[in-house]
Specification:
By secondary structure, the chain is an alpha/beta fold. Helices cover 51% and strands 15% of the residues. It has two domains: 2-244, Spore Coat Polysaccharide Biosynthesis Protein SpsA, Chain A (Alpha-Beta Complex), CATH 3.90.550.10; 245-293.
Amino acid sequence: MIIILLPAYNEETDLSPLLGKIRETMDRHGYAYRVVVVNDGSRDGTLAVARQHAGDMPLEIINHSMNRGLWETVRDGFEWAAEHTDAGDVIIRMDADNTHEPRYIPALLDKLDEGFDIAVASRFARGGGAEGLNLYRTFISRAANLVMKLFFPIRGLKEYSCGYRAYRAGLVQDAIRIFGNDFIDLRGVGFTCTLEKLVKFRMMGARIGEVPFVLRYDQKRGSSKMLSSITTLGYLVLILKNVYPWGATAKEWRRKIRDLQAERDGAAEDRGRVAATAAAPLERSTESSRTSD
């Protein structure tokens, strides 16, 4: 099962064409999927558009009666997905403004099949790019990614700020188990939560890869929700809190990560012993047969 999360705020004009492309892509590839629109108190017809499409595709709606901000909208979506998936399922998060093309979903899934826990759609990978961004937004985006790579280096990753990603559901379930309500805890600082998730998964030792994609900002008809000054402030706070996580909370996170890894290692050893025990009678039988011959 693939869960596609769409946090949405005043996306009346862009949500409908995106949902149509998602349905076409998923049906063409025969994927079992469910779209989850998290409507964050939109004041336009976003909710009505989502309800209309719920009649012709597998679609759930989480509705906030008032605007709570991107961080809480994303957190609610991931918590819902974690509760409604098995560990082997996939969670894909996309923007609802029609700038993330669903045609990249197969490539993201292929990347997970290579053994990665997270696959990032990257504008900065070879073959990636962006259409419709002005020079200022392009500069800010590249500068932010370079700064984040400096403080939070992840081998092979060039894209830190794009929210278009595919996650193994088991990884998200583990993150919520470890971080709880602090899985996304920077409130009211713009789009920082997109990077914060990556930082938390990095702490867990997640394997993160990327695939090239082209951001289609030229297709966006609604207004931009990003305030670069607030998001920049959020990045600074994130760096201060997470480059060297400190305090009792961070200590507890590290303990839970170690305990989870020990639990996984123990389970792997148990499976190995069971396999060895099951193989032993066959080996003895084979040796006996050779001796009698």
